[in-house]
Amino acid sequence: xxxxxxxxxxxxxxxxxxxxxxxxxxxxxxxxxxxxxxxxxxxxxxxxxxxxxxxxxxxxxxxxxxxxxxxxxxxxxxxxxxxxxxxxxxxxxxxxxxxxxxxxxxxxxxxxxxxxxxxxxxxxxxxxxxxxxxxxxxxxxxxxxxxxxxxxxxxxxxxxxxxxxxxxxxxxxxxxxxxxxxxxxxxxxxxxxxxxxxxxxxxxxxxxxxxxxxxxxxxxxxxxxxxxxxxxxxxxxxxxxxxxxxxxxxxxxx
Length: 254
Ligand SMILES: [Zn+2]
Hints:
By secondary structure, the chain is an alpha/beta fold. The chain contains nine helices and seven strands. It has a seven-stranded parallel beta sheet with strand order 2-1-3-7-6-4-5, sandwiched between helices. The longest helix is centred in the N-terminal third of the chain and has 19 residues, at 67-85. The radius of gyration is 16 Å and the shape is globular. It starts with a strand and ends with a helix. The protein binds zinc ion. The site of zinc ion (ZN) has 7 residues, from loops.
C-alpha cells in the first residue's frame, strides 16, 4: 500500500498550534522507515475545488493564506481516491484536515473538504460512496455537503449528530458500529475520514492503538464488496502517538 504524501504538507500556515507540521512529519518518517512507498500529490485544480465549494468561500481561503496548503491537501485526497479506483488502497497523510469544512464555511481547522472533493471528482467512475468518519468529532461539513445525496452514505460511528452528542461507547461497540456501516447500502468505493483523536491518550480517550488495526481490517473486509476500492485521508489526531495509531490502522487496512 502507498502513502500519498508531500513534504509540502509540513508547511506552516496560520492555524491552531495543535494542528502543526509534526502531525504529518513524524508519521511520514515512521512509515518511511517501515518501508512504505510514497506518492507525491498535485494540488487540486480550482475546477476540482469548485465542484464542492462556492466562489466566496474559495476567495476567503485565499485571503486568509490557506489556499496553497488546502488545495494540496484536497489534491492528495483526489490522488488517493484515484489510486483506490485502480485497485491500489491508499492512505493520504495530509494536512489541513477537511471534514468540518462545508460548501461555504471553514471551521475546526478545516478549509476545503478533502473527502468531499475526492468523492465528487471520481464520479461517475465511482457513483456510490460509503464514507466512514472515525474522527472523534462529527464530520458536519461532509454531511452538509452530501445532504440529500442518495449515492453517498456517511457513518460517524460515535457521534450522533452535529450537536456533538456521543453514544455510550466502548471499543467493541465502536467496532460493531463500523461493521454496521457496510449494511443496507451498495457502494463503489469506501472513503475513510481517518481522525485519530478518539485515541485513548488523545481527547476522545477511547480507542487503543491495536483497535485502529481492527478498524482498518473491518473496513478492508467491507470493501471486498466493491473490489477492494478503499482509501483513507487523515483528519484529526493530536497526541504524539499519532504515528503509532496511523501505522496500526494501515496494518489492518492494507
Ligand atoms: Zn477531530
